[in-house]
Amino acid sequence: MKRLVLFFLCCCIGAVDIFGSEIIIFNTSPKGYPPYMIKEAGKQSSGIMVEILQIIAAKHGYVVKTKGVPRKRVDDQLKSGDLDATARAKEWVPNPEDFEFTDVIVRASDVLFSLEKTPITFQKIEDLFGKKIGAHLGYKYPMLDIYFKDNRISRNDTANETAMLTMVLKERTDAAVINELVGKWLIKQKQWQGKFVVSEKEIGGFDYRIMFNKKWRSFVQKFNQELTLMKQNGELEKIISKYK
Questions:
Q1: What is the pTM of this model?
Q2: I need a labelling partner for 44 at 20 to 30 A (CA). Which of 52, 121, 128, 231 fits?
Q3: For residue range 76-96, what is the model confidence (pLDDT) as tens digits?
Q4: Is residue 191 classed as helix, strand or coil in its secondary structure?
């Protein structure tokens, strides 16, 4: 009977670990998205979004467990409660009122990576006319797509950001449009420091947040309070800087 009561209590308050702390199940996707979510064989998940969530959750008695869920299943699992949270831009969600969103954690800027010896600088899109720009296969770039379509800017598609940077290194493209933190993290991992420069102007981007199941409304309010403090005292920037 006691075991049955305990089971129903756990169902009511959510998953708990062996120490009695309530668990937040956070989606890192099957392959992660470094440096925001990093998944490496034999290691615990890490990354900017994971670390910030872990720090704030721990202050309020929660434990973060990660789960790699395919993109198409994430929203359904969030609604059902099989998943508690995922990293997401609010503008990507057609029905944001169905979820709870944190304040903006980090601006994810898409910028141009070009060779240090032949840097590509631009103040307006017209400055890129006649250039070969590396792009991620299947991605849309609202600021550039019209010019890709009429070939005023040449688009060179590759499968991932590592391949995009490699094409720039081999001078097969003039520059590549890559998320700034993703590009800097890859350059650090590949030991390509000193080979690239980053444009000051954005090509695009989004405000990265964490999206929660509705039941986490009160925690999201606490999260936002803690996040504000982390922004003010420099702790947030210190965490982000580790991954550059």
A1: 0.89
A2: 231
A3: 999 999 999 999 999 999 999
A4: coil
